[in-house]
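ARCHIVE CARD
Drawer: 12
Card no.: 0347
Subject: one protein chain, sequence and derived structure
Cross-reference: see card 0346
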Amino acid sequence: MRSRFRPDRQLTTRMLITTFLLGLVYVAFIAALIALIKSVVVVVLIAGGLLLAQFWFSDRIALYAMQARIVTAEQEPRLHGIVDRLCATADMPKPRVAVADTGLPNAFATGRSTDRAVLCVTTGLMRRLDTEELEGVLAHELSHVAHRDVVVMTVASFLGVIAGLIARFAFYSTVFGSGDRRGRDGQEAFLLILLVLAVSAAVYAISFLLIRALSRYRELAADRAGAILTGHPSALASALTKVSGDIAAIPTRDLRTAEAFNAFFFAPALGRGVSLSSLMSTHPTLQQRLDQLARLSTELGEVS
């Protein structure tokens, strides 16, 4: 799909490199599992089936998990009006529009393709932002759809889950299968499970770091593309400041249900006092994002 969103060659290159590296890691992973223990092949096949299911139904799964509903232009005229204007400006197909009835101020895009894309915002976000700020957030999310990084993140994230599940399976096998290791066969089986656990944990760690690095860059790319499309970087900066500040004030226990969506959210659902290293975070720091938007505002000659 072509649109007026400026092509981001760095983002495309990073997505290709991440996908290629993850592919290499998982080919080696599956080969190691087959060599170590034949029964794990069944686990891999089941996980592969789940991956296909998530890829095919990613939009429905995300909406269900966030308890969101597709809304019509009659139900949400303001929201649809903004999306209509942005899609016309970007010359791209209009995605479906959904609303999640939650006080958490956020937004995300999902879907396996541009034809199946869904743009979802929360009622908490719509209450807090004015029209220009909301336009900036929606332009940010539309850029994810246009650049197709939503699909890459969906698949890449699930591949990491596969390794995590197998690592957990191996861990519980060592814990609950420790009844009788006195014989040679028992000791060999125990060592085999430990080896599977070590390989799975290593693959999960590598996947985790690769996905986090891609996730941080794609958020900066979406900020840049969205701000250029609207021509108002300051509005997006204002939205970021509001949303980040309001999320920090929400009790941590209320944010836990949304943690699984952090890699896809406009702003991560992290409470005040939560500290993450740059290697572990799904998003660049708020200051990095604001600094980039300030530079864009100057380049575009935006009047404050």
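Annotation on reverse: The chain has one domain: 9-299. The first strand starts at residue 68 and ends at 70.
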